Amino acid sequence: MIRHAQLKDAAVICAIWNPVIRDTLITFNPVVKTQKSVRELLKEKSVRKEPFFLATEQDQVLGFATYGQFRGGQGYRHTMEHTIILAPDARGKGIGRALMQAIEDHARFNGAYSMMAGVSGANPDGAAFHQRLGYIRIATLPQVGRKFDRWLDLILLQKIL
């Protein structure tokens, strides 16, 4: 089931997000999330009318997805960028696809024209996932991220909604 995240979900969101931040090159961000920072993020997204969806099965949260404007300014108001994170045991079960469908449908309904994905070059599975969903690889930005003393490429993919 896909549902909107609530403030009370902050702990479980941290439990899914923080191992990805702490232990992988999937995200370049090295700063773990706190329950307080996640609650603030959920409040900000609510004010901006940007969804934060959770995928659940029998009340267990298996992953989340959200999106926001790709870059600041009115000229970019129809282009969005998303974040999707799944618990390790949720991968390969169609949960990521369901979350992506939810955010793409929401974005399309609210006037978005395209959705961007920024995927770490160290995450080829993430790039392949997006390509299976119809995202086109449009650029590789070499060595723009740094984590664990490594320079990392950023792969940009786009889907016209």
What's the topology here?
Layout: E1 2-4, H1 10-23, H2 35-47, E2 52-57, E3 60-69, E4 79-86, H3 95-109, E5 114-120, H4 124-132, E6 136-147, E7 150-160
Explain what you see:
This protein has helices at residues 10-23, 35-47, 95-109, 124-132, and strands spanning 2-4, 52-57, 60-69, 79-86, 114-120, 136-147, 150-160. The protein is of the alpha+beta class and 161 residues long. A 7-stranded mixed sheet has the order 1-2-3-4-5-7-6. α1 crosses α2. The longest helix has 15 residues, at 95-109.
Task: Report the mean per-residue pLDDT as an integer.
Answer: 97
- Helix and strand composition category: alpha+beta
Q: In whole angstroms, how far apart are the ends? A: 23 Å
- Helical stretch tally: 4
Beta content comes to 35-45%
Helicity level: 25-40%
Helices and strands, in order, run as: EHHEEEHEHEE
Got a strand count? 7
Uncertain ranges: none
Global geometry: globular
